[in-house]
Amino acid sequence: MAPRNRLIIVANRLPVNRVKRKGRMVWETSPGGLVSALKPLVTEAGGSWVGWSGSPGKAPPAFEHENIQVRPVSVTAEQVEKFYAGFSNATLWPLYHDCVRTPQFHRRWWWPYVDVNRQFAEATAAETKPGDTVWVHDYQLQLVPAMLREMVPDVKIGFFLHIPFPPLELFAQLPWRREILAGLMGADLVGFQTPQGAKNFAAACKRYSDARGGDTKLEHRGRTVVVKPFPISIDIEHMEETATSESVQARAVELRKDLASSRHGERKILLGVDRLDYTKGIEIRLRAYEELLRRGTHTVDDCVLVQVAVPSRESVGEYAELRAFVERLTGRINGEYGEAGRAAVHYLRRNLNFEELVAFYRAADVMLVTPLRDGMNLVAKEYVIAKTDDDRGGTLVLSEFAGAANELGAGSLLVNPHDVDGLAATMDVSLTLPEAEVDRRMGLLQRAVRKNDVFGWAGSFLEALRS
Ligand code: ADQ
Fold first, then answer.
1. Whether the model pTM is above 0.90
2. Counting atoms of ligand 1 from 1, which one is nearest the CA of 374?
3. What pLDDT does residue 4 have?
4. What is the best residue among 376, 381, 407, 452 to mutate for testing ligand 1's pocket, by most ligand atoms within 8 Å of CB?
């Protein structure tokens, strides 16, 4: 008999990827902390995962993979363009990230968003029985909670937004603001990365719907909707194991040899690791580094910047422009300040495998996490845990506008990521902090991150949803 309280996860992407192995196409578990935290919960509860495979067209039938039921949702090529590249990534993404790019509002994108949300809700309804718990994820699926509630009675529905929820005055621009809020309020629990996100949402609901209540609980059409922050975290144990493995430690030493050696002793390594996304503040970070070198207090003899950027959403125009801009800027900085055999910036546009990524974290003296706005930013937390006691120290330069700043404000060097001069000055400080101060700050950061891992995050969300 199926256990009671089955758990259904609904997310834009499935927890598996279709890949070719030994000439055969097979499903493989996707990397990442979210999948590794949620999959065991679904296995334990006997539930399923509803999502898109990443390929347009008719979805394969539901199947079992490593003890969980996987139900792919069909999304046509036209829907990928309008629902995903359009409404999700060119309307909602910039709107929810402080309008750091102008959001585009097109009716021709809105209706595909509604249609795809209905396809997800229908696929979820087919998996769901009364008494089940359904956990819907992220901005692509904000209409699913209310749609699902109409389709299946007596289910607990939770929603978690991985990105920021914008302040009222920005959210107000959205022509479909009422529909989005009504969609989200179909959930019993709506979770956010930060207290501010939760507050912004409650304020928007009270302004643009008939919901009443405080910041943490809304009454809407005879139901109660709980609104709460649940800051996400990483798989700490997995990071520690990887960071202390012999191969990663050896690779970190090798990276330091390649990057940090200089005529005048060691160079300090500043590191940026991001998806190549305009919210991550990569351009201003590079301009600040250029400014640091222009001032002449630091040169390529004492520091080097490594920027690793994973290609992302390349079909969206803004992303192609960002790539061209970053490439021009790195060329300009190297042309101006590099020396033969000593680049000022190393720019790696690629996805690193996890071990290589962790080796970079261990090798870096300064981690630059300077998004213009970010829901949380897991890179900041990953860096902190990758720096174990036996390692040389590390300093985190962190944007005030990353959700992570709520928890990591005390140990990091906080910056306004829009301020080129301020950022250059903070880079200068980060390169000259006394060792004892570096260690003191890292101690604070490690204690802060260790308070909660991704399993604790998922557990506390589900506990709040089921209580
Ligand atoms: P993202 O915007 O993708 O996530 P982030 O939290 O930084 O941002 O996660 C990125 C992940 O990708 C990290 O685990 C990082 O290690 C990995 N990564 C980045 N660059 C890489 C590279 N070059 N090679 C390999 N791996 C790389 C969204 C929100 C965030 C929120 C997360 C989780 O935008 O604010 O923290 O969801 O909720």
1. yes
2. 35
3. 61
4. 376
Domain map of the chain by residue range?
A: 7-233+454-466, 236-449
HSE, side-chain direction, 13 A CA sphere, residue 439: 7
Task: Just give the CATH number of 7-233+454-466.
Answer: 3.40.50.2000
Domain at 236-449: CATH code:
3.40.50.2000
384 Cβ below 6 A of ligand 1? no
Tell me the residue type at 352. Answer: L
Cβ of 37 less than 6 Å from ligand 1: no
Q: How far is the CA of 162 from the centre of ligand 1 (A)?
A: 11
- Could you identify the atom of ligand 1 that is nearest to the CA of residue 352? 24
Which residues on adjacent β-strands are paired with residue 349?
309
Which residue has the least CA distance to atom 22 on ligand 1?
A: 351
pLDDT digits (tens, 9 = 90+) for 54-97: 999 999 999 999 989 999 999 999 999 999 999 999 999 999 99
Q: Residues 96, 119: contact at Cβ < 8 Å?
A: no
Selecting among 138, 277, 374, 453, the annotated active-site residue is: 374
Q: Whose CA is nearest to atom 35 of ligand 1?
A: 375
| Residue 181 pLDDT | 98
Euclidean distance between CA atoms 171 and 166, whole angstroms: 6
Ligand 1 centroid–CA 274 distance in Å is: 7
Question: Ligand 1 mean position to 131 CA, how many Å?
Answer: 34
Told to judge if 374 belongs to the known catalytic residues of this protein, a careful annotator would answer: yes
Low-confidence ranges of the chain (pLDDT < 70): 1-4, 389-392
Residue 391, pLDDT score: 66
238 catalytic per annotation: no
Distance from the alpha carbon of residue 280 to the mean position of ligand 1, in angstroms? 10
Of the residues 65, 98, 115, 162, only one is catalytic, namely 162
